[in-house]
Amino acid sequence: MAAAHRVAARVEPAQLGSYQEAARLVLLHSVISESHPRPGALAVVLRWADELAEDFRSLFGYTLHTTARHARLIRRLDVFDGSQAILAANSGRRPFDRRRLAYLCLVLACLHGSRVEIALADLVKDFSPHANAIDHLGFNPTAPGHKDAIVDVMDWLVQYGALRVSDGSTQAWARDPDRGDALFDIDHELCNALFRPGKPLQHLTSAAGLLEAPPSGIGRDARRRHGAQRARRAVIENPVVYFADADPETAAALRQPTLAEDLVRLTGLQIERRAEGIMLVDTTGHFTDRRFPGRGGAVNRTAGLLLAKIADLQEDPERSRELKRMQPPDPAEEHADLLARIDLALPHAGTLAALALDAPAVDGTNSPEQVEVEDEVSEPVRTPELPLVEDARLAEMINELYEEFGPASFTSKWQADPRGLLAEALVLLADLRLVHPVPGGVLVRPAAGRYRNITAVLPHPQSDGQFAFDFSAAEDPS
Questions:
Q1: Of 2, 20, 120, 426, which sits most exposed with the smallest number of CB within 10 A?
Q2: Could you tell me the residue range of the domain that residue 390 belongs to?
Q3: Separation CA 382–CA 275 (nearest Å)
Q4: Would you say the pTM of this structure is higher than 0.85?
Q5: Model confidence over 314-345: pLDDT tens digits?
């Protein structure tokens, strides 16, 4: 007898909630250890390791590796985007910059050759020659920011459980490297799990080689299966997916009822489908790396207030007529430009030309076989024109917010920098795919209308009639 469900086929109804919790943990935290993201999380995942591995492979083409001490999800990427980042473990939670990312790779390489423990001072001695051999990177303990970058890398590894502090502290070393130090126990298994590229990097001649290559010259059924897999990956990894941004096979798969059925059963969340696109709605409040709207600090709250002002602008009959409308840039062209800029920094000196892997095409062109199959699937979705909110009008909005609530309401970090706060809020809205930055302003994307009656971020009047902009104590990671 065939299974009633394709997803969690062997999971009893009474145990489905536990299985869905484990699935959400793995999707939200690609690496789970005995201490990260919290004690007990690994046990929840290991209970369902076999079922999860099977479902992740069939739904997304992902690979789940598990041992008694960690779980690691290996994703397959269809596109690059700027919304994913490694965040520092400290209270600021700022994304790693290029220096920190480079230091992280070098530190992991140095740890690979170490024994079961290492002192931070000794690690830095091993690390420094490698960093100094790289043009424009280097390591100098007297240079601004270099020691801070090492501290952030080590604290991040401690957070994930790859290192354990057995004596001293990174802060003591940063204050005085001659007197302060830290001693770490090394979990080599977890260190190896943290850096597992899908392909050998020294075999790549382009960053596009890290992406999932679409099949070419094969039958329609295989291409449809690949399109369905791309569609499921897009919905699970992005805040919202617009039909107009997808290729024909993916757009067709996004509209299939089986996609919603599979993802709802896997995650326990809900699918919201509108004329313009589809999104997975986090009803738990825990399945997201960027909570919005909500009490997430000045940037999060300001982004919500900006959406409210944009909605007011669009709903005002007089002012809305002044808004220009334009088509957003073509996603394929934008992605090709991003790849070209990444490849500008690609070192070719260490590439093994004889073993170089062919990168997939990224310019949207198709072979004759692909064109024939695509024509049979569906017509491309016509990209609609979107309203443009120009930079000058956005500046007016942030100034109005400062006048309405007072500069002190925006915390000490932003009270004298309204333009900086505006820029950070727009980055957040762009990451959430609610706006699209273009030269001269932002295009308002359809999902922004979901927040036209936003109230969670709005201040409430105090008894004296003044508004209270009640920011949480924790500041945004941005």
A1: 2
A2: 298-327+384-468
A3: 12
A4: no
A5: 888 888 888 899 999 999 899 999 999 988 87
